[in-house]
Write a structure and sequence with these properties.
This protein is α/β, with parallel strands linked by helices and 318 residues long. It has ten helices and 15 strands. It binds threonylcarbamoyladenylate and magnesium ion.
């Protein structure tokens, strides 16, 4: 298994040798490699069994460094970046040649983000290259929000996991681009639409297209998925429908009487608390002895939209 620790020097040495290290961020753990080294990036795709059409996000620690990798950085996006970073926002920008094709799946843009985690920020400061990092889970499975989640699934394949504790946001970054003088949101995530609109002072455009071979995956119809069947709906009705089976329940606020395998996302009804718990609870229920999992949508406000997006993809089956 991988070594779990907080040794930034050791993590840096592995990365400088072209090896992969799992890193904590405020959203989810990332599977990181040197973004400027096509071989390291290839091994990210191999380790995750990720299709090559699904581009990676490039992580750095400072706004100044970004001009090395992008041709332009529109002013409104710079202002947004200054307000949010380090934070759960990824910005798509036209890339320079120095970013290898394999990082962006051949697209002209590269997704960039400054993540908000002290260990990872120190690591990034100590490196003279940025880190390409998708979520550190096998492709399509639930994203990891603790070092142990990474170790359970990828521990045999990587040398080191930087252990930064539980991720505070718990769902992936919001992905945005600038087009036609408007902010386009390509993936809902840890920064809410409401927060984005407050920050830029105008409405955003939602471009959350779903397809099975999308330009912006993370948008795949099935993603973030447990191995057990997951159904979303009215919990009482679903309990009746699956009576006789061992049922694992993930509710938003309520605690259902008489259910032994049960997780409640936020007893207070807070979508931030719910997003922090979401992937851990899904994983725990998937590992429990429940045969089917049932859950309900959360209110479509604040991080609730991004949570419901994850739930839909987690439950999707063809
Ligand atoms: O919070 C996060 O964003 C986490 C942490 C580790 O930073 N990373 C993450 O990476 O969620 P990943 O690979 O699981 O999802 C990245 C998604 C891709 O699926 C793709 O949709 C989108 O980012 N993406 C990246 N580069 C893109 C590009 N140039 N154009 C369109 N979409 C892009
Ligand atoms: Mg992912």
């Amino acid at each position: 298994m991988a070594i779990l620790g907080t040794d930034i020097v050791q993590a840096r040495q592995f990365l400088e040798q072209g090896k992969l290290v799992a890193i904590p961020t405020e959203t989810v753990y990332g599977l990181a490699g040197n973004a400027l080294d096509p071989d390291a990036v290839l091994s990210i795709f191999e380790t995750k069994a990720r299709p090559s059409f699904d581009p990676l996000i490039v992580h750095t620690d400072s706004l100044q460094k970004i001009e090395r990798w992008v041709k332009e950085f529109p002013k409104p996006l710079q202002a947004l970046a200054k307000a949010v970073w380090p934070g759960p926002l990824t910005i798509l920008l036209p890339r320079k040649e120095i970013i290898p094709d394999i990082v962006t799946s051949g697209l002209d843009t590269v997704g960039i983000r400054i993540p908000n985690h002290p260990l990872t920020l120190s690591l990034l400061q100590s490196l003279d290259f940025p880190l390409a990092a998708p979520s550190a889970n096998p492709f399509g499975y639930i994203s990891p929000t603790q070092a142990t989640h990474v170790n359970e699934q990828l521990g045999k394949l990587i040398p080191y996991i930087l252990d930064g504790g539980a991720c505070q946001v718990g769902i992936e970054s919001t992905i945005v681009a600038w087009a036609n003088n408007q902010l386009q949101v390509l993936r809902l995530g840890g920064l809410s639409v409401e927060a984005l609109e407050d920050l830029i002072g105008q409405k955003v455009i939602l471009h959350l297209n779903q397809s099975s071979n999308p330009q912006a995956p993370g948008m795949l119809k099935s993603h973030y998925a447990p191995r057990k069947p997951l159904y979303i709906g009215d919990l009482e009705a679903l309990l009746k429908q699956h009576a006789g089976k061992r049922i694992g329940v993930m509710s938003f606020q309520q605690v259902l009487p008489g259910v032994t395998i049960q997780r409640t996302l936020s007893p207070q009804g807070n979508t931030h608390e719910a997003s922090k718990n979401l992937f851990r609870f899904l994983r725990e229920l998937d590992q429990s002895d429940a045969e089917v999992l049932i859950t309900e949508f959360v209110p479509e406000v604040d991080l609730g939209r991004a949570i419901n997006d994850r739930l839909r993809r987690a439950a999707y089956s063809e």
